[in-house]
Amino acid sequence: MKRAGADNRYYGKFFLAMTVSIVLTIAVLSVILYVHFERISLKQAYDGTMERLEQTTQEASVMSVTAATFAKQIYSDPHVANLLNFPDADAIEVSTAVKQLNNYRETSPFIDSIYVYNAKARTFYVSSDMSVPAVFAEDEFYDQEMADMVTRLNEFETLMPIPRKLMIEGLAGNIAEKQRDTYTFLLYDTLTRSGRKNVVVVNIKETQLHKLIDGSLTNDATNSFVIDAAGKLVSSSWKYPMLSDMRSTPYISRVLEAPEGTGYFAEQVDGVKSLVTYTEPDYLGWRYIRIVPYRQITAQITDMRNKTIVIAGSILLAGLALSYFVSRRLYAGISHKLTRLGKLEAENREALAARRSEWLKSLLKDGGDTDGLRVKRNFERYGIPLEPQGDFRVVLLAIDDYGGFSEQYTARDRRLIRFGLQNIAQEIMLASGLSAVAVDVSEDHAACLIQERQPGAMDEGRLSEIWPEIQASARAFLKLSITLTVSGRGEGIAVVNALYDSALEATYYRLFEGDGAVIRAADVEAKKAKTYDYPAGKEKQLLEELMLGRMTQVKQLFADIIDDATNYSYMSFQLAITRLSFALQNTLRAMNQHHAADGELAVPSLHLYTNDRVQSLDELKGNYMTLFAAVGQRLEARKRGRNDDLPDRIKALIESRYADPDLSLDMLSEELGLSATYLGRVFKQHTYQTILGYISEVRMNRVRSLLEETNDPVGEIAERAGFANNPYFYKAFKKVNGVTPAEYRKNRRQRQEEDEDAILA
Q1: Per residue in 649-681, pLDDT tens?
Q2: Backbone phi and psi for residue 450, each to the nearest 5 degrees, phi listed first
Q3: Whose CA is closest to 485, among 500, 503, 472?
Q4: Pseudo-torsion of CA 209, 213, 218, 219, nearest 10°?
């Protein structure tokens, strides 16, 4: 069996080595040939381009010579001489000379226009293909750039091309064009020193030179153009207009840095790797440049390289397949046994990991076996780098927003993420001088048992640097927010369970600290030591404001009570929120007893100890703020429904029960099922008087009627009107009417008698 295994390994290695050797040989030869052929292609492309550029240079020179010859012929033409030398040429002479200029222009396809400038007359005589006058005064000439140039002729060389743009927008006969690219040739008397001179101007079309350079005016993969010594375009290009400044272009800068000679180089041009070929400056100082995409030059070589790669890849795949099948056939005898051994080994590892995890969880949660020797043996057995007699701390890594975490990942993925979190924590702690072992203890958190590996590694200052690093790594690598709770320091394995319990209790304080916090058990113990007194007075005030519908005050009082409770133990906070919730629920039920049709509003569920518990204090407050907002909306709806007729209902009750001496604001409040304060505020808003004032008014009106209509005693009348206190009645009556009840009766009857006598008379 051993011999067969050795043979199998030998054959597999042999076939693999042969395949790799063949592929490497082909690859090396391909690279050498590719580089060599690439150089040859670049040289051939350069030679061909240079031949074309040199021919273009000659043709451009011919064009310049031809333009200069035309200018000289025009200058010496006797008909044109009349325009140049005499400022007062007559119409016949002008017409004859212009016809001669037209003949010169029409004999050459690349002449755009011809100007003859008479310096004394300051007049331009024009031959052009556009329908423009033949004679222009200098200040009315459409080519104002030329009008400016003739005033400073000494700045320009005679019969040398001047690249420029001829502005023709809006001229007669011109519809679409705004400007033309031209080369202007000036011929003037260089010996004369006067300020203004007679000039013959020949404008050559740039398109003619462009055709010679590029062969086309359309968008093409290749691009040829001409630049001057300053890096400015003196020919147009389908990419850049004439006179564009190209100095900032990297490949033009590289050409300008080579002032002499010709050459070529590969460069990125407009994002495309290209071959840039350039000539040496000609007698005009112009350089001819041609851009050819690199892929266009190396297309055939690239195709050869790709074919070579495909062939080499095919050989490699075939060799690998042959190696695979031969090795598989040779290994067929032991493949099954190797697979079985691998499975057994994996199962053994998984079983060991499961036993290790269960033992650690038992140690943390239940205390487990705390015998030092047995614990040490288990540490060694499970590869745990801790000492039973050393100092310990327990760190819990709690996953924030566990509900969202559960919805996002499957159970298997959640286990893998928790495993990754444990590895991150262990690696960071190990790098910080700690010995650590991590274990899953529940669905939403893992625990780390840590110990010093280097002196001082468990000091608070050192540890405070580790926790943010763990949290940041969890966010970066696992997209996970975690809260850390850290126990105090304890000596010996026997305290591990107590340390775990204290850290677990501290996790509940995440509600106060928020997600991503670091909570220390020592801080929790300090809060537990403080005595909490429930603010019953604030609770009463909150409930009163709730019944009055003052939701702003309700929300502020609720926040004050909750914020104050966070300064104490979690149990105190739970008791406070439970008591307050119970009081709120009872108040809401009392408020709804007269409006059952509206349905009962429920106080939010708390879930303070379950996995789906409220995650933060803001979330808890938000739930209650939503409740208060709903209560406020319901109260406002009720008010809108009854505020309009409430004053009339109050008046009707007062007018029907005014005789009852117990009639009061509290009686009306109980009768209508609304608070006394609310009744008083609504009544005053609508009637501009108080309810007690209206009761007194109704009673006083009844007293006055009885005094006028009956002879009953005043005390009896007061009692029948609802005044139970005679001294108060007399005082109130006199204050309102200005007289006592007896005087009021006497005065009213005396007035009635006077009225009757007046009627009889």
Answers
A1: 888 888 888 888 888 888 888 888 788 888 888
A2: -120, 160
A3: 503
A4: -140
